Hints:
The chain is mainly α. Helix content is 72%, strand content 0%.
Amino acid sequence: xxxxxxxxxxxxxxxxxxxxxxxxxxxxxxxxxxxxxxxxxxxxxxxxxxxxxxxxxxxxxxxxxxxxxxxxxxxxxxxxxxxxxxxxxxxxxxxxxxxxxxxxxxxxxxxxxxxxxxxxxxxxxxxxxxxxxxxxxxxxxxxxxxxxxxxxxxxxxxxxxxxxxxxxxxxxxxxxxxxxxxxx
Length: 184
């Protein structure tokens, strides 16, 4: 979270200040990518990039505080993920099949190594194994930092239904961790 500097950072980014936009991107992108790895694992990076393109195009029209910014960012990402899912269902692709053996990169992606070292992948995989609604609301509440009302509006459910889904999802995650021998 950017905090009390958010209005100034946003205003500067809206005026074209690259440094200010970088602050917005660095604050939002890690959580955005984690969220998309749960709801659109096959295209998370592509959807993240499309989300930022949409954000850049609409940034000058955005009005609101930091909570509204995060809600707008994640709403945009969710819409891009739905669009990408529809596109992929209409035109299935297999670009990996076009790349012959021996043409794959020799070195793992640095970002992936960092995420793996921090056990983020394991956490994302655990959340992704939950029913879709539970996984999505947990990512929006915990990773994106959105409040219950914003999450409810985003997923088209009541705030009560969101609270129940979060509770059930977290309870299931705790059960999974206990079964795996992970302790607090």
